[in-house]
Automatic annotation (TrEMBL):
Keywords, in A-Z order: Glycosidase, Hydrolase, Signal
Molecular function terms, GO-annotated: hydrolase activity, acting on glycosyl bonds
Signal peptide: 1-19
Name of this protein: Beta-glycosidase
């Protein structure tokens, strides 16, 4: 009901403003390539070359632009009707008689730089791109009919840097459209609005397209007192390292927004559209949206006010904040003023940044923030989100810090990090999740405890999934997915198109687990104030970054559900802290139970239930105690077969990260077992779950199997005569040696890729370019494994079709083999999913019949992996399979064929450089 009332109030305010207005929506004449006034040149409206266009709209939505010359574009979606330059929109307007001697305003809710003419005479020009443009018509424009011409130019009028470095313009997402979107109206202007821009803006520098008395600067359409402040935004303030609202500590569960609207190529302008978008965000537990280098329209703020979502708009820039560039500085300062004055009254607008990943003059950044604070002192400000990629640390003038790290770091150290995943260019081994043995204890306390102000994890996640080519049919608007078509053709060319859906599913299900891990690292950090994911939505630009759990349309990919996602992305999240997830029989479990409590009330008196269950029902746990922080102890009675459950009482009044108790016990299993430990707070929706694996402890049985690093002549003879060979070539193996056998040579590099545990970060091509330019190791670029859990090789190693935490030691010690030269229909037992740029067929575990013998190739050093229980279990499972009658490879190959295939260079993939603005 409160939401309905708020929307109704906003609607009344809007109606009041529009009561004396005339909508100009509808048909207009449009002439491409035309600047200036046709009326002025010919003394009449030029109709000869004019086409018809519907406004609000763009050249693209009116299908008046030019067909693409390049249908091989893979860095972003392709505009089917692109246009860059001037477009002259014209129509006849009729000013009512009762508007005589009253100031008349032309209102353009959102557009590009414009030049407005009435009856051939220039009224003024304006380059506001983040807020409405308002023109005061000359007093001599009397009631009656007049020719109105609006020249919109998406190729001039703003600093050159903005075209490629702001999501207000870049072709990566919103596109550099030409048109007018949102409301287009004639309005009666108030006496305040009709004052000159000079009077209202004082000494603030003007933007790069000068405005004069004809342009009305941005101003709030309603004062804060006109709206009843909703609870989520009451008394929004900072205390130390945390945000508070309505008297309670809050945690910002944010997403990044890059203006991805694939059907129109421009931002949504309706409240209904934003209610749907932000409503989906809320379904997935998101309570905060950061607008990367752009600012949304009024409708977004209205919807966010209603739904209780905090917004952080940014200046439309991403790059060098150079104080010497006076044109750029003036433009950005004006945009900032406009944003604050236009939208500052909205309860959802609580934070603001100067742009994305800026570098340049820090003193100038502080000057901007100081100026903006004078205009809107109720907001909190930071310099550019992740400015200087976090290396410069916290500076005076920053109220909070959105960053991936706090200050500098030594390569290979993680003590300044504030997120769990990075590119290989920015952190050793791609960050903490990829580097360290899987656990649920890692956090960012070391970095955040030193900060003293709220820290928000910047662009958390960025875990790729393989694209879903079924999505292509959704692109029925102005943007076409030629990138999808190119990637799909590449996959078909190497004979793996039939696996596309499985690649998508396996990589996607694994990415969800990775996002959970990264988010929970934030929740386990006592002085972390929030995160901004990149993203729950795919980003179809910058090389095509399919990093979302939802597609570009904010629709499900089928890899998670809102209910599952909210387990770790909610106001209240139960957490289990464990040093590892994999155990041996007889090993103790020692786990701490905590709750990230940002729900606005104490949990004292609540009961936290735990439940432990095995998939196969064959486990027991004995001699266990389950104790709360305040000492309540429950002792198990005898062996706990198949499953068990218990209760921990919560005694804490605290908000934030709450210690609840500990779980201690001993695992006993009869066979390899996967367990699920579930936590839920009684009487609430708060629940979470963790997968554990327990393996019997026994000696490796190698009888009957030849284990070889090299396929030398002696091993080959045994193989061809009927032996069973497990070949585990080392990372430095060269498959064809001087003696024409398959052996090791330390000075050679085989046709393999490295072992990457997590899915590749953001986009392989872009960060390959950056790594090479910065002389850093390039990521292996893979997206996890694909396998069949029912294959007999996994009898001793429970698995899904995708990577999970128990695969860590095997994958980290691996170097998957490129199988492009092998038969197109050949499928490895364990396949590694490659990225969309290379599309190699990659094998981790493969098998063939060779002569009378049987060969199993494992591209992982299982001797090293076996130092962990899960690595040892996989090794045992492989050996057990090879020793059984089920080891009977369907594919056959001769040694000569194998030598030939391994000696041939695989398909070469040439990737053009793809640079990132942020790599200053």
């Amino acid at each position: 009901m409160r939401r309905i009332v708020l929307i109704a109030c906003l609607g009344l305010v809007s109606l009041g403003l529009q009561a004396q207005s005339i909508s100009l929506a509808g048909e207009w004449n449009v002439e491409l390539g035309k600047s200036g006034s046709a009326f002025a040149k010919s003394k009449r409206a030029s109709q000869g070359e004019a086409k018809r266009a519907i406004l609000p709209g763009t050249i693209d939505t009116n299908r008046l632009g030019f067909a693409p010359k390049d249908t091989m574009e893979t860095t972003h979606l392709t505009r089917l009707y692109a246009y860059k330059g001037a477009a002259r929109y014209s129509r006849t307007i009729n000013i009512p008689k009762d508007w005589k001697k009253k100031p008349v305003e032309l209102f353009l809710e959102r557009t590009r730089p414009t030049w407005v003419y009435v009856d051939g005479e220039l009224v003024d020009s304006c380059n506001f791109i983040s807020t409405p443009q308002r023109y005061l018509l000359p007093k001599k424009v009397k009631p009656g009919k007049h020719l109105l011409e609006i020249v919109v130019d998406n190729g001039r009028g703003v600093p050159e840097q903005v075209y490629g470095s702001s999501h207000a313009y870049t072709e990566d997402t919103q596109t550099n459209w030409n048109g007018i979107i949102g409301r287009i109206e004639l309005q009666l202007a108030s006496s305040v609005e009709s004052k000159s821009a000079e009077t209202l803006t004082g000494a603030i520098p003007r933007s790069s397209v000068a405005f004069s008395a004809g342009v009305i600067p941005s101003r709030s359409i309603a004062s804060p007192s006109a709206l009843q402040m909703p609870d989520f935004a009451k008394d929004f303030h900072i205390e130390g390292a945390h945000f508070y609202a309505n008297g309670h500590r809050i945690f910002l569960r944010g997403k990044h927004d890059a203006a991805v609207w694939p059907l129109t190529g421009h931002v949504e302008m309706s409240v209904e559209g934003w209610m749907k978008y932000l409503g989906t965000c809320k379904e997935y537990g998101i309570n905060h949206v950061r607008f990367h280098s752009w600012c949304p329209p009024e409708a977004a703020f209205v919807a966010a006010d209603s739904l209780g979502i905090y917004l952080q708009p940014e200046l439309p820039f991403w790059g060098s904040f150079d104080k010497k560039d006076e044109r750029l500085m003036a433009f950005l300062h004006q945009e900032g003023e406009n944003i604050l004055r236009e939208y500052g009254h909205h309860p959802s607008f609580r934070m603001m940044a100067l742009g994305n990943e800026l570098w340049g003059d820090i003193d100038k950044m502080k000057e901007f923030v100081d100026d903006f604070r004078k205009i809107a002192p109720d907001k909190y400000y930071t310099f550019g989100s992740n400015y200087y990629l976090g290396y410069q640390g916290i500076k005076e003038g920053m109220d909070y810090f959105t960053t991936c790290r706090i200050g500098g770091e030594g390569w290979g150290k993680y003590n300044t990090h504030t997120r769990g995943s990075f590119s290989f260019a920015d952190a050793y081994d791609g960050g903490m999740i990829n580097h360290f043995h899987p656990n649920s204890t890692m956090n960012f306390d070391e970095a955040c405890d030193k900060a003293g102000i709220p820290i928000i994890s910047h662009e958390t996640g960025q875990f790729q999934t393989y694209p879903d080519y079924r999505e292509m049919k959704k692109y029925t608007g102005v943007l076409h997915p030629y990138n999808f078509e190119v990637f799909r053709r590449r996959l078909a060319a190497v004979g793996m198109l039939s696996q596309a859906d499985d690649f998508h599913k396996a990589s996607g299900l694994w990415s969800v687990k990775l996002y959970k891990a990264d988010i929970e690292m934030d929740l386990r950090t006592r002085n972390m104030a929030g995160f901004q994911l990149l993203d729950i939505q795919d980003y179809p630009g910058q090389g095509s970054a399919f990093v979302g759990i939802l597609d570009a349309f904010m629709e499900s990919k089928g890899i998670t559900t809102p209910e599952e996602w909210r387990q770790w992305c909610s106001p209240v999240v139960p957490l289990l802290e464990m040093k590892k997830f994999c155990f041996e029989d007889g090993e103790k479990i020692q786990a701490k139970v905590k709750v990230a409590n940002y729900g606005g009330s104490s949990l004292k008196g609540k009961k936290l239930k735990w439940h432990l269950a095995a998939e196969n029902g064959l486990f027991c746990m004995d001699d266990g105690t389950f104790s709360t922080k305040d000492g309540e102890v429950r002792k198990n009675v005898g062996d706990l077969m198949a499953e068990d459950e218990g209760v921990l009482n919560i005694f804490s009044y605290d908000e934030g990260l709450v210690d609840v108790g500990e779980l201690n016990g001993v695992f006993h299993v009869q066979k390899p077992t996967k367990l699920l430990l579930t936590l839920n707070i009684e009487g609430t929706e708060a629940r979470n779950s963790y997968e554990l694996w327990v393996y019997p402890k026994k000696a490796l049985e190698k009888k009957g199997v030849i284990i070889a690093k090299d396929l030398n002549q002696e091993v080959v003879k045994v193989l061809e005569k009927g032996g069973k060979v497990l070949w585990m070539p080392t990372a430095s193996s060269h498959f064809v040696a001087a003696d024409d056998t398959l052996s090791q040579a330390d000075n050679a590099t085989p046709y393999t890729v490295g072992g990457l545990f997590q899915t590749d970060y953001w986009n392989y091509r872009m960060f390959k370019t950056i790594c090479e330019n910065n002389k850093k190791k390039v990521s292996p670029g893979t997206l996890g494994i694909l396998t069949n859990p029912e294959h007999p090789i996994f009898k001793g190693f429970p698995t899904e079709m995708h990577t999970n935490w128990q695969w860590f030691p095997v994958i980290k010690e691996s170097h998957p083999l490129v199988l492009d030269n092998f038969a197109k229909d050949y499928r490895p037992i364990v396949q590694v999913i490659d990225n969309i740029e290379r599309n190699h067929k990659l094998g981790l575990v493969m098998e063939w019949k060779v002569g009378a013998g049987k060969l199993l190739v494992c591209m992982s050093n299982l001797e090293k992996a076996a130092k962990y229980p899960e690595g040892r279990a996989f090794y045992e499972s492989v050996l057990g399979y090879m020793q059984s009658d089920e080891f009977n490879p369907a594919a056959e190959i001769t040694m000569d064929e194998l030598k030939k295939k391994l000696a041939e260079k695989p398909r070469q993939v040439s990737l053009k450089e793809l640079n990132n603005i942020s790599q200053y």
